[in-house]
Specification:
With about 350 residues, the chain is an alpha+beta fold. The strands form four sheets. The protein has a six-stranded mixed beta sheet, sandwiched between helices. Strands 13-12-11-14-20 form a five-stranded antiparallel beta sheet, with helices on one face. The protein has a five-stranded antiparallel beta sheet with strand order 15-19-16-17-18. α2 crosses α3 and α2 packs parallel to α4. The radius of gyration is 23 Å and the shape is globular. The two termini are about 30 Å apart.
């Protein structure tokens, strides 16, 4: 468990301001935000690589604010992986254990075990220069996990990978987290990455944590909308197919998606543009759109010539839609108004 309370730190003209957040035991906390808002600085503070002006950092309820990095029980995985070029993969993974004074046989067993779990057992003799970007990432993760840390800190771990490799890297991280149950704090600017990995999320903006909680909640903030636009990002699980469309469970609501090239049980992130959602006073009949759901309006915001409508469907599904001002008046749009939201299966795009 990592807990941060009222953390303040200045780096040149930049300052982290009253940062408070918590990653509970086994959480995969993703801190989302654009470049330059202080995400890496936050990780460096947690790791003990930067001194803080005020505030507290706790690891498993122990105050480590003034402790050096080696006494915090945390492992920091930088964006460039920081592998030692003169060492083999085996040497890189085993080096932290060597520093802890472990014997050669114990080191061998631990290295071979974690290498097997990450699928790099056949790479142990190689040097980092002979590895692909994805292989280097696995070695960096193995080196971090081999010490069985209290938590790992990941600084945009897929940013250096070719885009075609990122989805496989996400699957690796998710699989490792599920199997090993480690606590993680992972920073990224990629909302699809956050959606795929996060069990808990926080949005960072101008040196502050704007909101912490479920990903759907942080994406509904004004700051997240400013950064990401008003696109709806929905995370769910594929339940099957019906009439050549895919059925995806999103927070207990089943949506119909035109793209059905996914397996049953697979987790998926969908993007839905707000202009692709139609709002109606009454439930429509004999229409081609396959997704029609009752909703309650929770927020109304001006967007120039348009109005952004925020609505809640059931207990946890939240959507944002655009309407013209004239349409908003015609529909009698007010907070707590009950409406119907309608959109086509082809409007939901896997990301």
């Amino acid at each position: 468990m990592i807990k941060v309370t009222n953390l303040n730190v200045r780096v040149g003209p930049f300052k982290l301001k009253n940062i408070s957040l918590m990653a509970g035991s086994g959480d995969y906390l993703v801190v989302l935000g654009p470049s330059g808002v202080g995400k890496t600085i936050l990780l460096e503070c947690l790791a003990g690589l930067r001194k803080v002006e005020s505030g507290k950092i706790f690891v498993n309820d122990v105050d480590v604010t003034k402790e050096p990095p080696e006494r915090r029980g945390l492992v920091f995985v930088p964006q460039n992986y920081a592998l030692w070029p003169h060492m083999s993969v085996y040497g890189n993974i085993g080096y932290p254990l060597k520093l802890r004074g472990m014997g050669k046989e114990e080191i061998r067993l631990r290295v071979e075990e974690i290498a097997e779990k990450l699928g790099i057992a056949d790479l142990l003799h190689r040097r980092p220069s002979a590895l692909s970007g994805g292989e280097q990432q696995r070695v960096a993760l193995a080196r971090a996990l081999v010490t069985k840390p209290k938590a790992i800190l990941l600084d945009e771990p897929t940013a250096a990978l070719h885009p075609s490799l990122r989805s496989s890297a996400w699957r690796l991280l998710k699989s490792l987290h599920k199997r090993l149950g480690f606590t993680a704090v992972h920073v990224t600017h990629d909302v699809a990455e956050a959606s795929y990995l996060a069990t808990k999320a926080a949005f960072m903006w101008e040196g502050k944590i704007v909101k912490e909680g479920a990903l759907e909640e942080i994406l509904s903030t004004k700051e997240a909308s400013t950064y990401l636009g008003d696109t709806n990002y929905l995370r769910g699980v594929v339940k099957g197919t019906e009439n050549e469309v895919m059925l995806v469970d999103i927070g207990g609501k089943v949506l119909r998606v035109a793209d059905h090239n996914f397996n049953i049980g697979e987790e998926i992130t969908l993007a839905l543009r707000p202009e692709d959602i139609v709002l109606l006073k009454e439930q429509p009949h004999a229409v081609s759109a396959m997704n029609i759901m009752p909703a309650v309006i929770t927020g109304i915001e001006a967007r120039g010539a348009l109005v952004l409508i925020k609505a809640k469907i059931g207990k946890s599904l939240r959507l944002k839609a655009y309407v013209t001002k004239a349409s908003a008046d015609h529909l009698g749009i007010k907070e707590k108004t009950k409406i119907y939201m309608m959109f086509k299966a082809s409007a939901l795009k896997p990301v």
